[in-house]
């Protein structure tokens, strides 16, 4: 699978596709212990202005999206599992006009519901466009596990957290994410995810 960006529907700044991109995936069910180090990772992406690419579907993914939005120079690519709806331009007009947010999808606007099939296509697009992955946790044998075994993800670097439950990721060659340490004491991290607006 090789995605031609010209075949995708977009809303926002398509120039973000030319930046190095880190794909962020996390399983829907995850241990609470991963939340704080994941927010530390998100803070570092804001600090470094790293382009983060995701479907932002799971609870933690949605919370990280909201957190990344608070970074005034943070580039974000949001791949949808449905068509682009008119409310997106209204809700995210400031970020879109600033050129730091891009929504993209292969689906027409008439596709309004995310299904297992559209979610799989969305995830494949994220994996295909990514240069590397940050996966703080995945359920063994789940959707993310299967995705990382797909040819579009093969050979791309994976970062994960140094936790016993991430042994399956480490065994497949993932590297342990270690905070840069340049930020000093981390403050201002969200204490709990906010509900999604999308």
Entry keywords:
about 200 residues; alpha/beta; eight-stranded mixed beta sheet; 7 helices; globular; disordered C terminus
In short:
This protein has 198 residues and is of the alpha/beta class. Helix content is 30%, strand content 15%. The two termini are 27 Å apart.
Biggest β-sheet: strands ordered side by side in the sheet: 1-5-4-3-2-6-7-8
Number of helices: 7
Largest sheet features: 8 strands, mixed
Uncertain residue segments: 184-188, 190-198
Average residue pLDDT: 88
Number of strands: 8
Share of β-strand residues: 5-15%
Q: SSE order in H/E notation?
A: EEHEHEHHEHEHEHE
Radius of gyration: 16 Å
What does this molecule look like?
This protein is an alpha/beta fold. It has helices at 35-48, 59-69, 87-91, 93-97, 116-129, 143-148, 167-171; strands spanning 9-12, 21-24, 51-54, 76-79, 101-105, 132-134, 158-160, 175-176. Strands 1-5-4-3-2-6-7-8 form an 8-stranded mixed sheet. The longest helix has 14 residues, at 35-48.
